[in-house]
Amino acid sequence: MSHPDYEQTYHHHSTLLILVKYLGDELSTKSFNKIFDRINRINYVKFTDGGGVPRNIWARYIKDYPVGNNDWGDFQTHRRLLGLITVGKCKTQVDLNELCRKHESLKVRYNSTLYDTRCVIFGVNDGESTPSYTPPSNFKSRALYFASDGDESAGLEDQISEYISSLFWVLESKRHERSREKIDKVSLLLAPFEKKDFVGLDMESRSNKKRCVGRMTKHLGDLCLQAGLPVDALNHYQAAAETLRSINDLLWLGSACEGLSAASMCVRFPNMHKSQTVQRNTSLQETNKTKTPTSKASSSGSEILEPSSLQLPSLPHNVLSNEEICKTYRESIIHYSKYQHAGVIEVEVCFKAARVAVELNMALQAASFLQNIIFITLTLPEDEKIKKLMTLSDLYGKIGFQRKASFYQRLAATKYVSARNPQTNWDQCYNLMLQSLSGHRLSLDPSDYPAGGNNGWGRLQKQVLQDVVVAAKRVGHSSLATRHMTLLLQVMWSELSPQERHESAQQLQVIAAQCEGSPIPLILDSGLVIPPANLIHIPTAESFVVHKLRSQFQPLKLDKIKEDYGPFLFTPFKFGSLERNTTSKDKLNYLWVAEEECEVKIELTNPLQFELEVSNMRLLTTGVVFETLPLTVTLPPEVQKYVVTLTGTPKEVGELEITGYSTHTLGVKSNCRLKCLPQISHSQFTIEVVPALPYLEATLNIDSTKDQNGSTISLYAGESAECQLVLENFNKGEVELIEISSDCDPSMLSYDLSNLQSQLPMKEGAKITIPLTVFASGNFVNSYPTDTASVKSSLISGTNSFPSLTSLKPGQYDTLTTPTPSFRSGPSSLNSLTSQLTQLKLDHASKGLVECRLKVKYSGKPGIDSGYCRIATVVLNVDVSNSILISNWDVMPAETSSQFYMVLDVMNMTDQEIEVKYTASKSILIEEGEPCRVPIPVDRCPLSKIGKFFQSEDSIKEVVDLNVTCSDHIASLVEVQWEMGERKGKASLKGITLSSHMLDIVRMSPINWEIWVNDLEPNNSTPHIVSIGECIQIRIIAHNSLSRPLTDLSLSVQFFQDYRNGTCNYNLDSRLATSGPSHIHLPVVEELGSAVMECCTVFFNPGQYKMSVQCSSQGRHTWKQMPPVEFDVQDVA
Amino acid sequence: MAVCIAIIGKENAPKYVACTEKDQELDFHYKVHSSLDIIEEKLSATSLTKGTDLREQCLGLLYATEEHKIYGYVTNTKIKIVIVIDANHTGLRDNEIRAMFRKLHGAYADAVCNPFYIPGDPITSKKFCETVHGLLVKS
């Protein structure tokens, strides 16, 4: 036997071997195969013999059988060729003769073992439609004639089963013959290679006799098994094994063991192979009716069956169990292995044992049988080796040993192309290589690989993929080679060392030079689809940022919808719909605009040691139409985080999904999807594209006559300047709406929009100019005097320029200037006060450089319809420098009760002489850095503004509010104008603060005085002329003009002489006498009520006297009658 | 003693492979890789028999080739340790193999205890390497 039959199973022990041969060349190979299939289906015949024992007879059809194998027929009878069927077709007598001749010659070849033959001939001798010829005389076989190989050969199946039964009966008779042989007469059966071993041996020895008997018993077992008597066979084999073991006839003992196992299997699973013919074609079922209907229950043998499910109810006691079967097989393998010439038999028994183990579900046993095959050294041609390896791989696959299976597949693949193989076949090699991928946990689809890597055995996977690349290259399919190389670089990237990456990349470049790789699936001739692979690591994307549009291009909603955030400043809960939360996961919260160039920034790393040219980089998008601009970039060797910007223009409105980018590098086009990129956490970006919007450019046109540069204007505080805002429409549609707003103090920047609306809509390329007025609102008031008392005292103790104060009595002065107790009561109120005061101060802190942002909100079709606009921003910097500063201030009562004097210390802060115009007609020049004190008459703060503050003056808030009101009152009335050469400006008193004493002067007195002297009409303007010794009746009526009663009021009258040099003489005891009270105390004066006080005065000396009348409430406020009543006392003479 | 030692992770990916001869490294990889089939088979066989919590960790001889014998060991966390022994080295007793496995298991446990070691990564511990190379034959 030259080579093993790798398909052998235990079942073959019980079959009759029949050769089916194809003769002549009239019949096509295809129709022969059809005929063979039909014959092959008739492989089972059931008989009942004379003793009533049912016999299951199996036939095994083969197409080719080496004569050498027949020689082993004595050793194992199933190797004998028992039958011969030839199939041919002919039309002429000559053809027929030729067929018959060939049939006869075949008969001669296998003559020693053939029992019977058939010759199936189509085309002649069947009915009248076909020519009728007579076979030649030397044709001794039975010929079966059919008109054609189609429907008209329906009788073929019956004929074949009849043929099998004829073979069986011959076999049965031989079996009987053998079993009746006398024990001492039996001849020695020999395996082919044994013949010379027994030359010259004593054939009559006792052991030899035993040998003969043992071998014959084993032979009988073989025959019984074939003849459908497995139980008998079992007995025979057991007897033979015992006999042969006693004389150490190991080869035959092995054979007996093998037979024992096979018989046991046959006994236990009698129906196992019955349906190998399973109804592949249901229309042919009728022809199979000879079979038992139970055949359907069995399987095709490739499945692993539960042994117990098919066991017969009663088994003979000597049948072997699963373990025993394996053990017996093992024993037989061990015995065979001792004979070098039995290598083929050993290989076959290994395969049989492995298949049995597979069927018995004993994977480890099967593995060890298969492992054993490798150790058997047989000199085989390469194609046989491949067959062996493929069978091994197949069986390993069946027991789930995918790795082993793949290993042998790969080994077989390499055998196809090994140097020893005369016909190298790269196609086969490549196909097997592909099949072996799964065992290495490799797949051709990159999406099958888990993201984390570390899947399977990287070292081997690398090698396997490399081999696939080589095989694909040798096949000549360079597109496949490119694809596989790309896959290798994609999925094995983490396994590759930098050096390997470099080499692989270069290799890819070489392969791809022949055929460019592109990301489309390749379909092989075999129908296998090879999914695209992408170079996601060359270059490696480190980050992927979808950029916002630049601020001037960003679209904004015209009307901001106020979102409801609920009652909490922060809450982890989202109010409103939940789905917004889910959809916005990858959705970007900014917008792109149609027809506007948008950008995506990618940081690329070149992992390779050579310069990498990446061409045709584009964005991959889905959703709305997006026009992306290709980019070509050359990455220096091993560059890290090289920034490239991909641009594109959305053409439609809607949602745009950015799923990745495409590259073309190393000759391979790749689509790098974000979800495949490990460095990027997003699987895609979704961005909303809004309708196209026009584009305006806003610029500031600053009057250049002044020393201004850029968008900065230098102004002195209080000065104002003009400039222009120019809006230009860049050709992106008409602008239909323009709104202008600024974020700075409206007093600083004002603009005239009156012309704007008339110029809308704005055509493309049009310009609009809007005049702007900038006012440098500065801080003119130094700061809040931190200690009012000290300011006051400095004012008082300094020059006597403030006569109003000095005219007060020292005692009164204290009560007036000392802040009220409530003003300083408790730290908390103090704090709140100071904080308010600081705020007051901050509002007017020196501004220096002020940045004004002018926002021009504009929109146009089509974006305006969906409520989007754009904002153009211009920045105007106003550099405010100090002009004049009010360092100190005070108030003085004026000559009339309706006014008071605001006395200001004005400081020139500039480095030039400045002219300060403080009233309509008065102005003063101040040198640089010089202070100057100016009085400004101001109307007192009317009660209508502050009346409410008299109600309860206890709270600090009211004090502050009163202060603010009065300060505003002053600021609204007083405006100090300054001029400095051509430049001029104005200073406001905003932010001035007043002490409570000042407040009493500033605000209108709630008391209206009426002073009657000698019952004359009150006339305060001219002095009353009285004479010495005259008793002057004075009647003072104080009217309460408030809408509430004043309580705890004291009225007082005091006479004094004003020397008009700043000093007043109050000590007039020797100069006048007063009858009646000079002080009265009133607990309450009703609202709009009045208090009356009367007294009489007699002047002793002539001169000018004045009478001051004042009223104080609760010791807090003092109101004086202004101006004092004057008396001109004249001598009587 | 051993010519190749491999630590294989739960998902059957190698975490550490060391062998004596560098030029045969790929051979060893193949051998260890295909031995996984048998380990898996043995594991599934034991997992079928229920109630045996105390699994035998040492799987014994997995298979033998002409040059090598391959032994396997599985921890409770399904980490596989495979030792390849030269087939000519016949004097080795079973419990010596077991001792080697136990030593490797201990070394592996120590390596994994390192808080900076990320489970699943290849093992790079120097101490572990020393232990492994101590078990490999000096050739």
UniProtKB/TrEMBL annotation, chain A:
The Trs120/TRAPPC9 first Ig-like domain, residue ranges: 545-661
Biased composition (Polar residues): 277-287
Amino acid composition bias (Low complexity), ranges on this chain: 290-303
InterPro entries xrefs: Ig_TRAPPC9_Trs120_1st, Ig_TRAPPC9_Trs120_3rd, Ig_TRAPPC9_Trs120_4th, Trs120_TRAPPC9, Trs120_TRAPPC9_N
Protein's name in the database: Uncharacterized protein
Domain Trs120/TRAPPC9 N-terminal stretches: 195-269
Ranges for region Disordered: 277-303
Native source species: Apolygus lucorum
Domain Trs120/TRAPPC9 fourth Ig-like: 1008-1129
UniProtKB/TrEMBL annotation, chain B:
Keywords: ER-Golgi transport, Transport
Gene3D superfamilies: 3.30.450.70
Compartment annotation: Cytoplasm, Perinuclear region
UniProt xrefs under SUPFAM superfamilies: SNARE-like
Name of the featured protein: Trafficking protein particle complex subunit 2-like protein
Coiled-coil zones: none
Major site of localization recorded for this protein: cytoplasm
One Gene Ontology cellular component annotation held by this UniProt entry: perinuclear region of cytoplasm
Family classification: Belongs to the TRAPP small subunits family. Sedlin subfamily.
Bilayer-crossing regions: none
InterPro entries for this protein: Longin-like_dom_sf, Sedlin, TRAPPC2L
Entry annotated with the keyword Transport: yes
GO biological process terms held by the UniProt record: endoplasmic reticulum to Golgi vesicle-mediated transport
UniProt superkingdom: Eukaryota
Species per Swiss-Prot/TrEMBL record: Apolygus lucorum (Small green plant bug)
